[in-house]
Write the structure tokens for this entry.
Amino acid sequence: MDKEVYADIQRMSEELWDARKTSLIMDEVSPGQHIEVPDPWFGGEDGYHLVFDMLNKACEVIVKRYKNQKSSSKESPQNLTSNLS
């Protein structure tokens, strides 16, 4: 997601907007740097590889965090998902 899409989501959410529930995915890898994922359409095949690598790194961080949370809290899967909302 890029900053333009982020702003669109914020605008469409109106009074329901909660910044704690929305962030750029690359903030998982580089917190606070607000790095955008580029549109791979304009980068040729290399652009697709770059975007895949970026998203893969972010997803690995997310999975690792929730695995650690699960093992340290000993919560059931239902309790883990309820913490996401």
About this structure: The two ends are 20 Å apart (CA to CA).
